[in-house]
Write a structure and sequence with these properties.
Elements: H1 2-13, H2 22-41, H3 43-63, E1 68-70, H4 75-90, H5 94-120, H6 122-149, H7 176-187, H8 200-214, H9 218-235, H10 239-259, H11 263-268, H12 281-295, H13 306-309, H14 334-367, H15 372-385, H16 397-414, E2 419-421
Antiparallel strand pairs: 1-2
Helix pairs in contact: 2-3, 2-6, 3-5, 4-5, 4-14, 5-6, 5-16, 6-7, 6-8, 7-8, 7-9, 8-9, 8-10, 9-10, 9-15, 12-14, 14-15, 15-16
Amino acid sequence: MFNNLNSKLSNVFITNNKFEYPYLLSSLVFLIYFSILSTVIGTFVLNLSLVLFCIIFVIFYIKNRKKIEITSNFKILYISTLFLILNIILSDHYLYSTKTSLGLIKNIIFLIGCYIVFKIDKKIFNNFIKIVFLIFIFTSLDTILQYLTGKDIFGYSRSLLHYGRLSGPFGDELIVGSFLSKILFVSILYFLPNHKKKYYDLIFIIFAIVVIFLTKERSASLMTIFGGFLYIFLRIDKFKYKIISLFLAALLIIISISTVPDTFKRFKFIYNSEQNLLDTQWGAHFLTSYEIFKKNPIIGSGIRTYRFECSKDYLKNINSKAAELRCSTHPHNFYLEILSDTGILGIGFFLFFLLQVFKKIIFSYKQKITDNNLIVSICLFSVFFWPLKTTGSIFSSWNSYFYILSLIVILYQINFIKLKLR
């Protein structure tokens, strides 16, 4: 029995490996698995697990640099790092920007390190997908329980405000819909290796859309519908079946809107045709970030300095009826956040990187048009980097983890970073 258990643990954590200090790789594997769970536990635990990962990975890579050779060109990364340093030096809030920049460096190390660990052994990636899928199912069922009974398995009650929004296992934080939408397309990968000729993934998509609708989170619901429809359209081969499937999915969404109390009111609140978007709180954020960019066009005001800049006098007269509501910790669109914080240079580096990734996705998809994993990459890219939506801060620990996770999965699928493992 113990031999069997030891064998299973070895397969999960790759304890028997050819690298120097093999326990370091096992520790990295554990921290990757734990990182997705820590997004539910709390931001402090998430940051701690990522910092530990970065420290251990740097040691692991130094000890094994003869066995792991990165052959990709990292000029853009080096130039971006120099720009980051310049942005910090010129920021009016030097210490705060430095703290945030350290978080960015942590995320970059996690992205590269996690990518390398996944490439070392495919089992690590597959096990991670299983964990993400199980967390998605548990969180979904917990959220459904809260919707039906008023409380989830941990005793958290649904919100009495915001038309009865749900929180699931997140307690007072109304982010369960956002969480589920962020891991949905990673979870779908669980179905694809062994069920390519079956349609469990499509059933799963419909289930996810319904659950996320129940949370009454607007942006999460709309982006899930967008991503879900895109996935269905690309996943099904025959055009006739594409149309039938999309029609049935749309019908289900309409039924959900009609039957879930106050859902229509919740969505109408922001998408009110009688009100100009720029006269809403979100419009005020957008205009403010653009004015900050105009004042600091080349290098921006400094990373995560929107909260300090937004209260300055020169922004009082922005062209919005909600000008007095312009201040927040971020402008609620990460493209505008990058633009105002890092200027034309920062957004330029970011868009150049996204363009390279997108080109590689399309090239890979054309080469392997029946590969459903690449469909997931297209959906992940579309959902996470679609510009016309309200978002959380891309520089916050919780949000940035999911952007990095989506990039890791995409880069892994398209083999973006070239490695030689000896």
